[in-house]
UniProtKB/TrEMBL annotation:
Classification via PANTHER family: NAD(P)-BINDING ROSSMANN-FOLD SUPERFAMILY PROTEIN, RETINOL DEHYDROGENASE
Family from the record: Belongs to the short-chain dehydrogenases/reductases (SDR) family.
MF annotations from Gene Ontology: oxidoreductase activity
Phylogenetic lineage: Eukaryota, Sar, Stramenopiles, Ochrophyta, Bacillariophyta
Keywords: Oxidoreductase
Coiled coil: none
Name assigned to this protein: Protochlorophyllide reductase
Amino acid sequence: QAVSGAKLHTLTCDLGDLNSVKSAAQKFLKEEKKLDILINNAGIMALPERRATEQGLEQQVGVCHVGHHYLFKLLKPALSAAATPTTPSRVIALSSSGHRFHKMTNLLQTGRLETEPYDPWICYGNAKCSNMLFAKGLHDQYYENEHIAGFSVMPGGIHTGLQEHVDWYTMLKWTIVTPFFFKSTSQGAATSLICATKADPKSDGGKYFDNCKATDALEKVEKEVGKDAASLLWEKTEKVLEDVGF
């Protein structure tokens, strides 16, 4: 609407099914050779009981992290083709303040990126912390030589379909504080857009952004789980993909 003559093309992609992710990526690459910006925005939150993806992974980590990791892996040739030293390609991973619920140390010791027993908020925290570490790992691996920059983003509290699994008592509390802490959808998109267009990948690449600014949240996570957490998560995720046939 804002850009006269712009065309919007849609692709169906279920992040909970790696076959669907593969199909969507193949369709994109059939039509396009270059990709300038990838925003990994899909997510689910706080499912009351454990549910599995089509490949048997815990659904929150499977959708929020593994599906997006695989999507990036498949689209990386197009991101590399679009990137230049002066205009890098950008990948933005949507995280959350809920990353603080993580138990990543335990998660990284498992073969399937899952902590037991199942807890809705710990699994959500693991998924959102994984988004932060994914962006860091991506930037560390691909920015210097292939000019693909990674950022993670806290969009803010926004009332969307993401809350469909949240219990009524929590939703009541959130409703009460909405005027003071929650954002509109447009406001919530602002930090992603900053990272997609303006943030400096040299100084702020790999970092966690909140309210349109880089923060030290990633450094705090690395103090908790180790400086090598991003690379370790990357290796674990690749092994999970291999184990389920991708």
